[in-house]
Amino acid sequence: MNETKWTPGKWFVESDGTTVTMAHHCVIVAPAPDGAPQSEMKANARLIASAPDLLAALERLTDAAMTRDRGNVEDALITARAAIASAKGE
């Protein structure tokens, strides 16, 4: 059994758009180069917060592809597309 080595739980972007809360107890501010626009910091925060969902979607897609079950692959693709859209702020 693989143990999770990162902070488990839901990760989300706070209302300021640049702070990421992990499992309701660990908070980081999205990194960006000096002088980066606020929009870049917000995009970085979305990408960081979506990391667990992106990983889960990729694992699900990989598992579905290995079984070659068309229904599972299509469902996994829907999940993956939703995770990607979330990461992009769409």
Structure description:
This protein is of the alpha+beta class and 90 residues long. The chain has 2 domains: 8-45, no CATH class; 50-90. Helices cover 53% and strands 12% of the residues. It contains 3 helices and 3 strands. It has helices at residues 38-49, 51-67, 70-88; strands at 11-13, 19-22, 26-29. The chain has a 3-stranded antiparallel β-sheet, covered by helices on one side. α2 (51-67) runs antiparallel to α3 (70-88). It is elongated, with a radius of gyration of 15 Å. It starts with 10 loop residues before the first strand and ends with a helix.
Chain-wise SSE layout:
Layout lengths: L10 E3 L5 E4 L3 E4 L8 H12 L1 H17 L2 H19 L2
Task: Using brief descriptors, characterize the structure shown.
about 90 residues; three-stranded antiparallel β-sheet; 3 helices
As for the number of domains, it is 2
Rg measurement, Å:
15 Å
Oligomer: single chain
Counting DSSP E segments of at least 2 residues, the number of strands comes to 3
Main sheet strand line-up: 1-2-3
Q: Level of helix content?
A: 40-55%
Class inferred from helices and paired strands: alpha+beta
